[in-house]
Amino acid sequence: MPAARKTLIEGATVVLPTGSVCTSVLVEGTKIAAIDPAVHTAADEVVPARGLHLLPGVIDDQVHFREPGLTHKEDLHTATRACAKGGVTTFLEMPNTVPTTTTVARLSDKLALAAGKCLVNYGFYIGATPHNLAELIQTTRTPGIKIFIGSSTGEMLVDDQAALEAIFAETTLPICAHCEDETTVRANAVRLAGTTNVADHSRVRDHAAAIIATRRAIDLAFRHRHRFHVLHVSTGDEADLVADHRGLVTAEVCPHHLLFNTDDYARLGTLVQMNPSLKTADDNRRLWQALVAGRIQVIATDHAPHTLEEKQKPYSPVHGGSPAGLPAVENSLALVLNEASRGRCTIDEVVRWMCDAPARVWDIVGKGRIEVGYDADLVLVDLNKTATVRNEEQETKCRWSPWDGVSLTGWPVRTWVLGREVFRDGRIDDSVRGGEAEYDHSRGGYWASDY
């Protein structure tokens, strides 16, 4: 067997679990082999990295990559090109494709598809329905169970209390949920049925809808002693709710809920229509406070691309109008690094929110940290690089971004997946393939003491 390839990344400021330090990192094969400022070895490649920061690869634990069934919007290959460019080395994808990922067989099919197409590491949730409890109980190759408590149609809406009680009581995998109260949303939609003003989206999917559903889900988690992750928190009140975690509850926020608010409808219209909806500038402020205080643990994107033609349809609070969702996986790290450049957070916090915490929440083996023995999923970033987001330069198949024209400071310049360089200074290596994420749910999640 040939010797494993060695890459020495020399002299970077490396963000370690204990803090940032100027050192060198040796990669051997797919693993981090050494972290030592004085390491000397006959490497196959030496990467001079002084003046740059080396981070663990970003783990985006909430994406919609649209394959199978909706590949005119995105597919696993185009989406993972976007990941590579953006410094995202592992993604966890949601089950609302066509067909939905609601059986063990469909999950296996999706994993097999990903093995041939993904430039980065991959994992897929299994989706809950009111009637697939047996499938949820026997599934293993997944980070967890996704429930749509509102904001879904067809088989994946689980709003019935008895069905929710059974899922929390009888399954063992971690659960995450989209929390918007269906009764509240439907009542608001009827009241505003005739509107074409996209700003009314935040009145249809209002604060109450989010708070009621999040409170309901947390109650289920506490009563059944079941690990639960609140997806895309959009309100300051929800951020207060998740502060009482009891060793069971974690939460995440998306860049669009941190950086956009209802004032942005006037400028961006349906491009910033998403579920949960945009909230107020005060909610932006409170979400940032909750992140920094540790009440919210994760930043993820909810990358949900649609074509521009679809997004530019007139708004309607009922189906048939402009769809909710936006692309973000390509620019998420740069967006948050830009906030660090403005003094809103530190680079160590960025790594905690986007790399370490998602690995801990989902018990992902060997990822999320720069540590000897961990997978060599790495991203080299230039904190001084300023560049402008441009639609025509996006790798995502939909080829647009709500941040088009925005200049950001702090960008990925090189990305490695399992020791292989997949992105370098604008060029992507399509021959690289990621691996299936592995989970050890016996570790107990984010609040477990062994972290």
Overview of this structure, please?
The chain has 451 residues and is α/β, with parallel strands linked by helices. It has two domains: 6-55 and 375-383 and 402-428, Roll (Urease, subunit C, domain 1), CATH 2.30.40.10; 57-362, Metal-dependent hydrolases (TIM Barrel, Alpha-Beta Barrel). Helix content is 29%, strand content 22%. The strands form three sheets. Strands 1, 2, 3, 4, 5, 15, 16, 17 and 18 form a nine-stranded mixed beta sheet that branches. Strands 9-10-11-12-13-14 form a six-stranded parallel beta sheet. The longest helix has 18 residues, at 207-224. It starts with 5 loop residues before the first strand and ends in a 23-residue tail after the last strand. The relative contact order is 0.17.
List keywords for this structure.
alpha/beta; nine-stranded mixed β-sheet; 451 residues; TIM Barrel; six-stranded parallel β-sheet; Urease, subunit C, domain 1
